[in-house]
Amino acid sequence: MSDFSQGRQEFTARFFVESSFPIEKVAEVIAGEQSSGTFITLPGESAELKERSRARVVSIKSLASVRAASLHSAYLERHKPDGVYHRGEVTIAFPIANIGPNIPALLTTIAGNLFELGEVSGLRVLDLDLPETFAAKFLGPQFGIEGTRALCGVQDRPIIGTIIKPSIGLTPEQTAEVVDALCLGGIEFFKDDELLIDPTYASFDARLDAVMPVLHRHADRLGRMPMYAINISGSVDEMLRRHDAVREAGGTCVMLCLNWVGHSGVEYVRKHSQLPIHGHRNGWGAFTRCPQLGFSFDVYQKVWRLAGIDHLHVNGIQSKFSEPDESVISSARSCLRPFAGVRPLLPVFSSGQWAAQAPVLYDQLKSVDLMHLAGGGIIGHPQGIAAGVQSMREGWEAAVQGVPLDYYAEGRTALAAALQKFGGA
Q1: 164, 179 in Cβ contact below 8 A?
Q2: Phi, psi at residue 349, to the nearest 5°?
Q3: Tens of pLDDT, residues 65-102
Q4: What is d(CA 187, CA 209) in angstroms, rounded to the nearest whole number?
Q5: DSSP string spanning 242-305?
Q6: How many CA atoms lie within 13 A of 226 on its CB side?
Q7: How would residue 425 be classed by pLDDT, with cut points 50, 70 and 90?
Q8: Considering the entire predicted model, what is its pTM?
Q9: Which residues touch 296 (CB under 8 Å, ≥6 apart)?
């Protein structure tokens, strides 16, 4: 795709569209609504203005029509109640001059009032393509895969991690005890649960004060600081203060609940941050679970990449959630895929994970650039946390070498015990 059309720099977005109007008509409605036009012709929309600011339809791919609307539209009921709903994929080019390097403007353009348009009974943002010269104006990830690996001291295999459990309810002293046990077990990364931010009985400050001496003690033993993604989510002032407290105490990572902190909040933290930003996507299902509405993960991760996070959750295979494994793998691939010269994200697999999933993950992803977080699969290992961590490493060794888990478990008690406890591959 050329960066320019008619002498202007552009970016493109691809949409799934459903309507009882012809898709060609709806595509023009979207292009006008999200740039210089509206529902009627305005005297101010001159030819010169259109050339500078109006979006244009690049392509339309027709899909099979359906007999029932995915989403109700009172507008369609009033204007086009013929019972046939056309579907298609529409690519639209927008002038970069309309938005500048501004994520709220970018999202308002590709996903503003579109979901409410009366002409559509289904609309989803499928992809986003930016010129490298434009993407370079955003901060992007500061550490990414390489920087995170360097801090964790892990190369050429996945970073093995877990989540502090119970998710919420521990006192600061109890949290420190869990952290001590995880560090003794050889864990490489661990994080707060997304629910844990600043409860009254275990404030952020009290938890940090309790946990950091434990981390320093283990850092002296290991020669590296265990990476703990501490949840600093809050107002902008709170997040900056908490980031600084973590950095000054010697911590090496912070975590943000992305959807609730917001893009501008993340950008502000990224501008200030000297630590990797671990991005948790809780609430993501509201944006994507209906396949005829919301966002694809491809678009979602690209925008968060621009904002500057370093790690992003992609769910887990064979997990407790509704997402199919194919979608989870596709999400991880999109984090690793090149995008407009912006540094890749480290995909984070979690939820119901354990050693036997390593071969499936590796076979599908064909990469070891990931975090593999196991809660029960590590903490619930019958031989303890250290064996749980070792079983995860052995599962990945077997995966990369292409050796069946049952064979690889011979003489490796941690993996063998995991297979017996959790049910085999």
Answers
A1: yes
A2: -95, 130
A3: 999 999 999 999 898 777 899 999 999 999 999 999 99
A4: 21
A5: HHHHHHHHT---EEEEHHHH-HHHHHHHHHH-SS-EEEE-TTTHHHHSSTTEEE-HHHHHHHHH
A6: 30
A7: very low
A8: 0.94
A9: 124, 125, 126, 127, 288
